[in-house]
Structure formats: C-alpha cells, structure tokens
Write a structure and sequence with these properties.
Length: 182
C-alpha cells in the first residue's frame, strides 16, 4: 500500500432519478459512496449488485462496461475521481478487481466521517483546497483497500495480508529484502 500513489481532483455530489445512469469515464478511477437511496451495478451476464445507502464502491480502473443505475428515486452519490501516479506499483493496481464494494456495516466507523470532511473541503476555497481533496481521496482509497483485505475477499499475495502471520512475514521480508529467508 505504501507503494501506491494517487492524485485526486474531483469531489462532486450527484442526485439521480430512478433509472438514471451514473455516467463515469470508462477508464478513469473513481471511488464513490451512496449518501441516499441506492444504485444497481449492471454487468452483461451477471446478476445486478445493489449498492445501498452508506455503501462505498472503488473502481480502480474505472467502471469499464458496467452500468451504474439509480434503483430508487433521489439516489445521491458522492463521487471522487482520481488516477494512480505513474510511479505506483502497477502490478498491485492490476491485481485489484474491477469493483471493490464495501458495505455500510464494514465501513460505518470511517465512511461517514471522511466523506463529510471531503464535502466540507470541496466547498471550501481556501489555499491548499485541491491538495486537501487529493490527500483525502488518497486516505479513502487506502482505507477501502484495507477494509477489503480485512474482509478476506482478496486472493494471491493481497489475500495473504488478511492473515496476521503472513502479513507480518511479508512486512519483514519487505523491510529486509536482501536477507536470505527460508
């Protein structure tokens, strides 16, 4: 996670009518939270996924061909756009699934607070506002990834981070890469 660097530049609330599509650029990374109502993620050949009030969705490589549709009237979404900086560890970014869905129960202690603060900063015109927004989006993405790993939904070396012993071993190996390990 320390190797991932990103820059965020947009925080915008959007209210949709029932059946209206949330238009996001297909290949741009986004993270959003449903502040009210619900969205439905539709993907050809798969059952729709309901994203309810308080749920967070991370789209590390953009929505691709998935459609995001308001499934209730007055669905309000707070959208953050970001991009991974070129020096980030690309292998990790591509190891992430196309969609990471964090339900309210898993993120209730942090999602509300950080998005409230994001909206406060988005409406503020003080110097350093763009930097604050970028850093807050950075925190949201890192926290979403940590929550996702803790839920045990990841696989491969990312999945190993959810096991305390394996995570401790990986950390030690990364701290002393030149040491011979058995």
């Amino acid at each position: 996670l320390a190797q991932i660097r990103l820059t965020g530049d947009v925080v915008v609330p959007r209210t949709l009518t029932e059946g209206e599509h949330l238009d996001l650029v297909a290949d741009e990374a986004h993270v959003f939270v449903v502040a009210a109502g619900a969205l439905q993620i539709e993907d050809e050949g798969h059952m729709p996924v309901i994203v309810d009030t308080g749920h967070l969705v991370l789209l590390p490589r953009g929505p691709g061909d998935k459609r995001l549709v308001a499934s209730r009237p007055g669905a309000t979404v707070i959208i953050c756009r970001f991009w991974f900086d070129p020096d980030s560890l690309r292998a990790m970014i591509f190891a992430l699934p196309q969609i990471i869905h964090i339900r309210r129960a898993a993120g209730t202690e942090w999602i509300d607070g950080i998005f409230r603060f994001l909206m406060m900063e988005a409406g503020d015109v003080q110097p350093g506002g763009a930097l604050m927004i970028s850093r807050l989006i950075d925190l949201v993405v890192i926290r979403a990834l940590r929550t996702w790993v803790q839920q045990g939904q990841s696989s491969g070396w990312l999945g190993g981070l959810s096991d305390t012993r394996i995570a401790r071993s990986l950390k030690t190996i990364h701290e002393k890469p030149m040491q011979r390990w058995s």
